[in-house]
Amino acid sequence: MKLPARPFATIILLLFLAVCPAGACPVCGLLERICEGSSAKFSIELTDDETGFFELGMSGGKVLVRGDNYVDIAAGVNWYLKHFCGVHLSWNGMTANLPDTLPEVPETQRHTTSLALRYNFNYCTFSYSMAFWDWPRWEREIDWMALHGINLPLAAVGMECVWRNMLLRLGYSRDETRRIIAGPAFLAWQAMGNLEGWGGPLSDEWFARQEALQKRILQRMREFGMQPVLPGYCGLLPHDAAERLGVNVVPDAGLWNGFQRPATLSPDDARFAEIASIYYEEQAKLFGAADYYSTDPFHEAEAADVDFAAAGKAVLAAMRKANPKAVWVVQGWTENPREELLSALDTGDLLVLDLFCECRPMFGVPSIWRRDNGYGRHEWLFCLLENFGGNVGLHGRLDQLLRNFRLACSKPFSKHLRGIGLTMEGIENNAVMFELMCELPWLGNEELQGLTKEQWLLNYYIPARYGKFDERIAAAWNILGSTIYNCPEGNNQQGTHESVFCARPSLDTFQASSWSKMENYYDPAATAETARLFLSAADDFRGNNNYEFDLIDIVRQAVADHAREVYNSAVAAFKSNDEIGLFSRSDEFLKLLLLQDKLLGTRREFRVGNRTLQARNAGSNDDEKDLFEWNARVQITTWGGRDCADAGGLHDYAHKEWNGILRDLYYKRWAAFFDTLRTSLGTAPQPIDYYAMEAAWARDLTPYSAEPEGDCIDTAREVFQSIFPE
């Protein structure tokens, strides 16, 4: 295939790129961060085209990547690296050692997409995964986004700076704003109207840090040609706004899992437009204007007696005053956006994120959340949620994702479909699901219609992920793809198959978090067999970063699945007054937990010290470092105070199966539980105050190291063989 003739403008651009420094082209800068010197091995060509595309070929001995914008070109670079070089850049590794001579593209490949918008992030992501990120970590994430074709990222860093400036203009003092605005690990839920103040106060140094960080983030996003989605304004004010400001607020929506909600300014209040204008003015001063603004009024709230149509018009009018071209990005989640709001706005006003399309789509196909008419005349994105709470665990819905995506791209659903979105609550997990999602828009219709998960895993994912095809790895993924990564239709569990280690102990413990809706949808023997197959290939993949990360994750899942069976046996022994069986099985369970801790200590990604170090590094003094570490610790344990954790059900919602917290909190909970059972045979066990144990761990600032300990392959083999002997 010959490349199309190059227009004059493209020739001029190529001449410019030939003489400009590598940093002038964002894709060249990206290539240099992947592998120093690699930009010289590529020819990057930007050209006009009406549809999104990237093209791979050869030019002057270099790999030629053409595209209509830098994000599409970066997606083309990623496609080349994965499918020609066997280099998969992922959250666990964003650098590579590329060969001196890159593999040639034997025949020009052209990939096009009609899905022009590719969105990224949930508000929760900014708190569960990103609360304490610095610029180097954000730089890697923006590179990941570009490589995966993301051009519409939510950009919520520094939103607290806008709130502070707005509140100051409304007459609140600096001390008052510090008490009103939540801490770093909880800002997302203030943005969504669920709470205020929890986790603070924030210092002036924090606000300055986040303002500077957001400016760097936005600059890099815009260099790639991404369109950042800035947080919009839907009327949120401090809970005392009615008395303090003399404004009308919507009727009290009550508590959110025990937290006092902020007030929401009534859309018909005379000051709504004024206060919204203050918000957008302060945002523009700091970060500029945007073509897309995201806000979700009445998120997870009953909001009785609210005129949703009037509210929608008021919110949109304020956005359009800030930017006449503004589009309102809103989450399709539970009852939102309300039908009255949808009916009141015109096509082009809204972009709806159908948040959980791989499980509970709302766009019109069969689902427990099905909407008969989808989102009506409004444009929408097909989104993958995948992870709740930033929890650790293998999980996916490969078949459902493929099936629902095909349906979304078919009539009548495709009429207003504008793209895809990644809307996970936490990242850095289950890379396979996100790789599939990001490749789907670039597959031709014929290829898409005939694609099976088995074909994609064998032909696309495995050779890219591990650099070469291996029968043992393929056999392992065949098991994973038909079991834990094939959560069936009708199973509505929220995210990972949770580890029993991370749950509060009881005689009927099953799930760790209150809303997980877990079901046993796969045979736990499957993960053990997968781990065995992975280990059998260890000698051929030692030093392969993706393999070693996946090995630890898979063995971790096998250990957790086996521990659930041991727990069930221990409970059965207690209920049958079998003292010997109870002692034996409870001791076995506790030994498994400590083995899991040892296993996970071999990778930085699975160490609690990685998170606590991020938190401490974000602080400007010892007091702030301690506050931020407490934020990081309390989020993954009690989440809130006693009422919120217990009656509100938030405890362990964001649990983490990580080295450190396993031995120092989860082990202590389970040891106390089994001690109680041993002394209560024949009677009801005494209750244990788990909240007190969790809160104590959150307050205990004994340092954790982020550095891996031990060889991951040798440790994985030792742990596995001690549990599953040949």
Report what the structure shows:
About 55% of the residues are buried. Strand 2 and strand 3 (about 60-65) form a beta hairpin. The radius of gyration is 26 Å and the shape is globular. An eight-stranded parallel beta sheet has the order 6-5-16-15-14-13-12-7. Strands 1-3-2-4 form a four-stranded mixed beta sheet. A two-stranded antiparallel sheet has the order 8-11. The protein has about 725 residues and is an alpha/beta fold. Helix content is about 45%, strand content about 10%. Helix 6 crosses helix 11 (about 270-285).
Strand order of the largest sheet: 6-5-16-15-14-13-12-7
Strand portion: 5-15%
Major sheet details: 8 strands, parallel
Globally, the shape reads: globular
Poorly predicted runs: 1-23
**Level of helix content?**
40-55%
Provide a concise account of the structure shown:
By secondary structure, the chain is of the alpha/beta class.
